[in-house]
Design brief:
The protein has 449 residues and is an alpha/beta fold. The chain is 22% helix and 15% strand. It has helices at residues 2-6, 11-21, 155-164, 187-191, 198-211, 214-218, 242-245, 293-301, 338-346, 364-369, 385-392, 428-433, 437-445; strands at residues 28-31, 44-49, 55-59, 89-92, 95-98, 127-129, 180-182, 223-227, 248-251, 254-255, 284-285, 319-325, 354-358, 371-376, 395-398, 403-404, 418-419.
């Protein structure tokens, strides 16, 4: 009896336990794998969508096809390996197995350099990317879901693949001539959108410090890392941990509290009480990436040779102001209270020309393009709506107190958006309605007002 108690449970029992822990979308029903074509090759789960009777396979990471019969070798651009291993190796579930003479994350390296084989570049940028071991930086399937990460968080991966595929003089494989260092951490893969990015980042930074001499040379001041999750570096410590604080964080969420102002709500939860989630003199707030953004912008503005979907010289008449999405009245700190205040004041039809809608909205794209202004608040952290509105032709109204926007030190936001504090939400319809038509059209066209 004791021996039976110590033995692991049968395979089918363990599978049932795992199945019960998986968070399934409400429209999907999990079936026994033998209900699907070829048992999904035992490389995926068997599903049924809604009321449909047809069963289909949802393949595990690295497999595709009706029966999950395809491997990475046949996936081409959808390969789970960066740059599909540059054609110099075989991709197997996220790992490049490189041909002899090549190595690296995407089989892109073929030369080594000895210590002090070159001097640091002085007159031009030279960036070296570390190769991180799989046990520190690998795509764990737990965070991938059935298909992949949510595309709005994938700027880190898009940048990484473009960087490793870059053949310009900016990238170097010789770390001794580099004056900037890219740490290709996978913080989003380990933390998802709301997790703590510090856990993975700390391990990666400790590895880099212990393995190469370059980080300690400047205490990390010339190293950068992407943090695309909702709250970026909000969980990171401040000056008490210089090895973390000094790294250049490339984020989408840039909440920074300037000295001399009263502390905002939620500031007490941050580890770094000095500058919060973002240091404007060191860190970078970059634009997010989402699938289809180029195609959407091209269709909106007629960039692909077709007629534009809207006329920049025509003022939309459907409504003055629009927003649709989550509100979360039960979470006062969500969106710094912006969405809740908007919904309280205008969410029940209080203003005939303003739509503040909780949840999804039918024909969302048409609603955006038919509105003069669209509210761009934050969410748990950064929000995707600003870039979506710009791609779809609606003038953004940014209400995000103390939050820097993407490339704000480079882009003339006053020429294509309206910026207001939370304290002016009650007067929002009157303020927007008072903008002269010629000024509005200039904002819509991205011209100086």
């Amino acid at each position: 009896l004791l021996l039976l108690l110590l033995l692991p449970p049968p395979l089918h029992c363990r599978a049932e336990a795992v199945k019960l822990e998986v968070r399934m979308p409400p429209s999907l029903t999990a079936l026994h794998v033998n209900a699907c074509p070829g048992n999904c090759s035992y490389r995926g789960g068997c599903m049924r969508q809604g009321s449909e009777q047809r069963a289909f396979c949802k393949c595990h990471y690295g497999f595709a096809g009706a029966a999950c019969e395809q491997t990475d070798e046949g996936l081409g651009y959808r390969s789970t390996c960066w740059n599909n291993c540059q054609g110099r190796g075989v991709c197997r579930r996220g790992f490049c197995h490189c041909r002899k003479g090549w190595w690296g994350k995407d089989c892109g390296r073929s030369r080594t350099y000895g210590a002090h084989s070159a001097r640091r570049a002085v007159h031009r940028l030279k960036v070296f990317a570390y190769d991180l071991p799989w046990e520190l930086a690998y795509q764990p399937e737990y965070q991938l879901g059935w298909q992949d990460h949510d595309s709005i968080y994938m700027a880190w991966k898009v940048f990484g693949e473009m960087f490793f595929n870059d053949s310009s003089a900016m990238r170097t494989d010789n770390p001794y001539e580099a004056n900037m260092f890219y740490i290709p951490a996978m913080t989003y893969a380990y933390s998802s959108n709301l997790g703590d990015t510090q856990v993975h980042a700390t391990r990666v930074i400790d590895h880099v410090r212990a393995t190469w001499p370059f980080f300690n040379r400047t205490r990390g001041l010339d190293h950068f890392m992407w943090l695309t999750n909702d709250q970026g570096a909000c969980s990171w410590p401040g000056a008490t941990h210089p090895e973390m604080a000094n790294v250049i964080k490339v984020v989408h969420y840039a909440w920074h509290h300037p000295f001399g102002k009263s502390l905002p709500s939620g500031w007490d939860r941050l580890q770094n009480k000095h500058w919060g989630c973002f240091h404007p003199l060191r860190d970078i707030c970059a634009t997010p990436y989402w699938n289809g953004q180029a195609e959407t912008a091209a269709a909106t503005y007629g960039l692909a040779g077709s007629a534009p979907a809207f006329d920049a010289k025509v003022i939309p008449t459907q409504r003055l102001l629009f927003f649709a999405g989550g509100i979360r009245h039960h979470e006062p700190g969500y969106s710094h209270g912006t969405r809740q205040e908007l919904h309280r004041r205008f969410g029940k039809g209080q203003h005939p020309n303003v739509t503040i809608h909780e949840g999804s909205f039918p024909d969302y794209t048409a609603a955006v393009r038919g509105s003069k202004f669209c509210v761009a608040p934050s969410g748990h952290g950064w929000g995707i709506r600003l870039s979506q509105y710009m791609a779809q032709g609606c003038v953004p109204v940014i209400i995000q107190d103390d939050v820097y926007q993407a490339w704000e030190d480079l882009l003339p936001y006053s020429e294509f958006s309206v910026r207001l504090p939370n304290s002016r939400i009650a007067a929002l319809p009157d303020l927007l309605a008072a903008i002269p038509d010629e000024d509005y059209l200039a904002l819509r066209a991205g011209e100086p007002v």
